[in-house]
Write a structure and sequence with these properties.
The chain has 395 residues and is an alpha/beta fold. The chain has 15 helices and 14 strands. It has two domains: 139 residues, Aspartate Aminotransferase, domain 1, CATH 3.90.1150.10; 241 residues, Type I PLP-dependent aspartate aminotransferase-like (Major domain) (Aspartate Aminotransferase, domain 2). The protein binds pyridoxal-5'-phosphate (PLP). Keywords: Aminotransferase, Pyridoxal phosphate, Transferase.
Length: 395
Amino acid sequence: MLKDKYRLQIPGPTPIPPRVQLAMSRPMIGHRDPDCSRLVREVSRRLGPVFGTQNPVLLLTGSGTSALEAAAANLLAEGEEAAVVVTGAFGDRFANILNSMRVKVHRLDVEWGKACHPEQLDAFLEQHPRVKAVFLTFCETSTGVLNPIRELVGRVRERTQALTVVDGVSCVGGVPAEADRWGIDILVAGSQKALMLPPGLAFAAVSDRAWNAMETNPHPRFYLDLSNYRKSLEKDTTPNTPAVSLLFGLKEVLDMLDEEGMETVFSRHRLMMEMTRAGIRALDLELLTEDRDASPTVTAVKGGKTWSSEDLRKELRRLGLRVAGGQQHLKGKIFRIGHMGYADPLDVLTTLSALEVALARIGAPVETGAGTQAAEEEWIRVSRADHRSVKQTGN
Ligand SMILES: *Cc1c(COP(=O)(O)O)cnc(C)c1O
């Protein structure tokens, strides 16, 4: 098959839109040049609505984890207490970051594949009244769970003085996020997931409460000292050389989001989730998550009894389609389909079609056409409903 033609349906990095790729190939500019300052000013402000904040969004050069570590290092110091809700591999990473700082970590471990429900968090918070911050994962990429962040953060704010830090790396830009209104103190995202950019930029939306807590935090930090990013941003710049080319791309991404409209972006992601789930069910495969816990950006599917999900992934790769495997104890047990960022319903159909062929080729039982048919029917059903609602509102 064509070696350079493949579909990247993994939950990050995700495909780059051609116009974003083109924007990133612009000739370099100096990072202290007025053109760069204008760019930094524009993108940090235009990211505000994507994160649901009035404040400009901080721009860090690093992968998503750099902003997670920054959140931890700026809010907490050795010996202080933090709670981490662990619903999968990325919650676990949050706990590891805090452990490395010798913060006293209280883990609320939730079965992988399930979301954390507000009542669980209530009981947990009651047991640990001294936590200074609660760390939550919005979309748990390792399982395809979307945690009910609005409710969870609401419970923390109602019952405690603790700060809330949310890892939104694999969903901000694809699902509604309201950092200010929901009371999130630090909302983190990365460039290479729903935001359609290459890896290399991380973002943080920071509340006034968090800034106050940072002022007195003695934990040592330099590259990740968020107050430096804030001071620099007041002068339309960054403390160090940013990933300038990615900033060119980011401006283009923000144009794309504006052109499509955020509501349409969100409903496109929901549609891709519904189509994927309908197709997987019609193929008699088992989804890892229940509907109510499912993320619009990534779907995890269990392997079969008579075939291995790793063999399936290898076969899909031969066909020109990349999906991700499982992490930690789910390695070899599930595969994960990313459907975020520069992805649309036709990508879902292609994925399901390739899945049917690959299942047949590895000798798994499959009714070819069943998955794509169910997904198409879901697409048609949703378009009819949209059409009706457009008629009713007269738009
Ligand atoms: C991808 C991802 C990260 C960041 O990973 P990096 O490799 O550091 O970019 C963090 N959290 C979640 C939930 C993710 O999906």
